[in-house]
Amino acid sequence: MIEFTLVIFSILIGYLLGSIPTAVWIGRRFQKIDIREYGSKNAGATNTFRVLGKKAGIVVLIVDVVKGILASIFPILFNDFFEISYAFLICLRLISSIFSMIGHVLPIFAQFRGGKGVATSLGVLIGLQPLAALICFSLFLFIFIVSKYVSLGAIASASFYPFIVYMVDSKVLFFEMIFTVLMSIAVIFTHRKNILRLIKGNENKMNLFKR
């Protein structure tokens, strides 16, 4: 019974954290617009950078990353109140992480129209595998700076994520590896339209250093 309760609690907290629609709230509060009606119509950090500028984009990026970090680490608090195994604790952290990403893509606080989950996924990765997160982010940044395609950097880093996790931690549990594969597939799936635009050569570019 306790295990079932902790699973439900992890689902709810993870989903509610992910559902915080940072880009939507920032757009409405400071520019009186719905970010989902402009640019790529995506409620994420990249579109916020394009539509609202760097300051708003940085705020959205940081908050969305923090959502993922909090979702991935808060089940650790259960250890203070319950005797649970290491494997079950990992399961709870993965469940909370998965639902934080679902919440970001389908936020209850924003009519279930959210972002693509890249920043929140990075936060989850930081919370679960900090070294792998650093490598993935470095790969993303390199590809983004060279190509000026945010989507290409996100797709590439997501594709290599399972291999990077295994390289930095060969003792990773089996269901953790399943999670990395599912997470990778999810990020790529949410970028399916970007992939088509990349193939056609009409994907939007963004210069990180342009004022």
Number of strands: 0
Order of helices and strands: HHHHHHHHHH
* Classification by helices and strands: mainly alpha
Distance between the termini: 56 Å
Largest sheet: none
Looking at the chains present, what oligomeric state does this protein adopt? single chain
Radius of gyration: 17 Å
- Count of DSSP-assigned helices: 10
Report on the architecture of this protein:
With 211 residues, this protein is mostly helical. The protein contains ten helices and no strands. The chain has one domain.
Structure keywords:
globular; 10 helices; mainly alpha; 211 residues
Can I get a quick summary?
This protein has 211 residues and is mostly helical. The protein contains ten helices and no strands.
